[in-house]
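Table S2 (continued). Query chain:
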Amino acid sequence: MQQRRIVRWFENMRERLPLAELPSMTMEPASKNEIRALILEFEDLMVEELIDWYQISGHDVLELAP
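Corresponding output:
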């Protein structure tokens, strides 16, 4: 599930923003806002994944302790 969410985000980003053309693009404020929103969406996704990893690894460590 985690991998699918990340792959879906990258596919969505690729559809909305041609990264290869980014250096030569002139952007309107609406485009910049869209990119900003996509980046914040990715940050939220990564924070959720980090929290999940922390909870899972913390639980595993407790199980292995004597």
